[in-house]
Design goal:
Mago nashi protein, about 190 residues, 9 strands, two-stranded antiparallel sheet, alpha+beta, 7-stranded mixed beta sheet, 2 domains, about 30% strand
Length: about 190
């Protein structure tokens, strides 16, 4: 009876033990369920927002873009920059002209902020918006800057460019994105 109890507890402990799958591991399976000569499946690492930034985290070849907020130039003094969010929470701010911070700045965005952006985009049916506002080319004004919002939501990357006449809900999403950028730059200036 003691041996049976010991074997039962050993089996339970073994089956409940934590199984680690390394990044980009390859699992080999065969039709009979045993590992071996069957098909191999790559198991990619799930994106995880990091909390500490290292130089290794900014190598663009290793990053996948999941969000973008960009302001383009005009014939005057319009702020021109882009703010790119990657799957690990790394962001790249590139101030180009008429902004306080010029150049490239890497930093982090919280997963909470990204989830807020996604939920606001979902609430306005971002994926159903037109790709460009105004939708009629005859209404375009060449001097106006574009505000470009790109979001990868559920595996689909959608980009919307807006110069004017966009729906109120899109303008609210742009304002929220602008607040995220402003907060990022404020935190950066405190670190200097």
């Amino acid at each position: 009876m003691k041996v049976l109890t010991f074997l039962l507890l050993s089996c339970i402990a073994y089956s409940c033990s934590k199984k680690n799958i390394k990044s980009d591991s390859v699992l080999n399976t065969s039709k009979d369920g045993n590992s071996g000569n069957g098909t191999s499946i790559n198991v990619p690492t799930l994106p995880v927002f990091i909390t500490k930034l290292t130089a290794q985290d900014t190598i663009k070849e290793n990053l996948i873009e999941i969000g973008r907020f960009k302001k383009t130039a005009c014939f005057g003094f319009c702020p021109t920059y882009e703010f790119i969010i990657y799957t690990n929470g790394v962001v790249l701010y590139n101030g180009q002209q008429h902004v306080k911070q010029l150049g490239h700045i890497y930093g982090l965005i919280s997963e909470t902020q990204w989830n807020q952006i996604k939920s606001k985009a979902a609430a306005i049916n971002f994926s159903q918006l037109a790709e460009r506002y105004p939708t009629d080319e005859r209404e375009e004004i060449p001097d106006l800057p574009l505000t470009i919002v790109g979001i990868n939501y559920n595996g689909i990357y959608k980009i919307v460019a807006d110069s004017h006449s966009a729906p109120k809900e899109l303008k609210e999403l742009e304002d929220f994105f602008q607040n995220v950028v402003d907060q990022f730059l404020e935190n950066y200036s405190k670190q200097e």
